[in-house]
Amino acid sequence: MPNRRRFLSVLSATLAGTLVLHACGNPPDKGGGADGSSSAPAADVNLETKTITIGYVPILEAAALVAGVEKGFFAKHGLEVKLVKQASWPAARDNVVIGSAGGGIDGGQWQLPMPHLITEGIITNGKKVPMYVLAQLSSQGNGIAVSNSMKDANLRVNLTPAAPTIIGFPKTEGRKFRAAHTFPHANQDLWIRYWLGAGGIDPDKDIELLTVPSTETFQGMRNGILEAFSTGDPWPFRIVADDIGYMAALTAEIWPVHPEEFLGVRADWVDKNPKATQALLKGLIEAQQWSDKPENKAALAQMLSSRAYFNAPVSVLEPALKAEYKLGADLKPSNDPKLGPLYWNSDRGVISYPYKSLNLWFLVESIRWKFHPGQLDTIAQAQALVDKVVREDLWRQAATDVGVPAADIPSGSSRGKETFFDGIVFDPENPQAYLDSLKIKR
Ligand code: CA
Fold first, then answer.
1. How close is the Cα of 90 to the center of ligand 1, in Å?
2. Where does 84-160 have alpha helices with state H?
3. 190 domain-assigned
4. Are residues 237 and 155 in the same domain?
5. Ligand 1 center from residue 210 Cα (angstroms)
6. Residue 148 maps to which CATH number?
């Protein structure tokens, strides 16, 4: 099919600038066998649209989206994915409200529950933009970084021993212990709140918890005005590399194989472009399988490091992708790949599947902290919102079409009970019991 080949070739060149892609000459890795990336179906030439504009933030959660473009996985299914770097999470939110027709984005990478809150107009000044969550992009790969000024306290995942130092901080410094996340009421806020709460520290009363963009969290710690921050790799990784601080806790330690960031697209785009949505999901699934393979981590780090994407050194990205962490104030080496960012395989099944049970946790946590009083107050509301937003059905269809073995495709909406490092259990069948079991809440 010379015409299609020429199209893909032009498309690849357009997408990658000078980099020559592999959409025609060298098809993307087909893997085969265990990871399920078996056959290479031909692109559907009858897609309703040939392009989608997707926002991303330069942290490791976006890795598979970049791989999907650079390795030609989306192009293989006939879709040009235009990846547009977002300056911040608020910018991504504002751009999806605008939509690509207005110069914004059709969808993108999200912390949860951003798509749910945008759907309800809760974080968009009342403007409701219905969205669908289509896939989970990654698990783990986030961490809580702590300043070297807290070296003596050696903060780790269990904060109980260090809690008096943190709570007593005003006595020594004249201000409270200061921590930051990059966007309120979503993942990185929730991880640090969970960690503090489990250690007996009230994040709203005992410390100062601020919203600060990633780059400024780094500078804030360097300048001694921030003791801790919660964000995605490679930022926590960089503070260790630059000897500014240390990693107190990996999110993988707080909640093994936890849900991290997700692909969410405007519902109007998906409803109007069902075939193109399938192409997007098929390309993403294959990109996640590729990104997850240990032998591809070095190439992935190279890809992400370019100016067009993360503009960060390979020397920081590659160890972060390979989970070559140094943990705690004593910088204890840890090389357990099970603690690093995961894109496809895990002990809890396929990462990419957008479990409703995992989406629900973020909304239950919103209720725990009373983030949106009068707008999101009950578990019934949370469940209804998850049902409206999460499209497991679309994921299953794409996975089946792209050759994921049936045994790897979850048949239900629940991953089952989730257990945190402090022994607390989130049973999606009984979220109230989870809320009741938490000591610190609003
Ligand atoms: Ca994250």
1. 14
2. 89-98, 114-119
3. yes
4. yes
5. 16
6. 3.40.190.10
Task: Examine residue 334 and state whether it is found in any structural domain, yes or no.
Answer: no
Give residues with Cβ within 8 angstroms of 399, minimum separation 6: 281, 285, 350, 352, 353, 408, 409
Asked if residue 92 belongs to a domain, the reply is yes
Residue 236's pLDDT band (cuts 50, 70, 90): confident
CA 42 – ligand 1 centroid, Å: 33
Tell me: the pLDDT tens digits for 37-78?
Answer: 444 556 767 999 999 999 999 999 999 999 999 999 999 999
CA distances from 110 to 6, 135, 397, 411 (A): 34, 11, 22, 24
**Predicted pLDDT at 30:** 38
As given in the structure block, the two tokens for residue 267 are 């519902």
Q: Tens digits of per-residue pLDDT, 68-101?
A: 999 999 999 999 999 999 999 999 999 999 999 9
Residue 249 lies in domain: 142-254
From ligand 1's centre to the CA of 341, what distance in Å?
Answer: 10
Report the domain count for the chain. 2
Residue that has been written with the tokens 């911040």 in this structure: 88
> Residue 81: inside a domain, yes or no?
yes
Q: Kindly report the pTM of this predicted structure.
A: 0.90
Distance 111 CA to ligand 1 centre (A): 6
Question: Cα of 252 to ligand 1 centre, how many Å?
Answer: 12
- Ramachandran quadrant class, 185 (left: phi over 0; alpha: psi -120 to 50; beta: rest): left
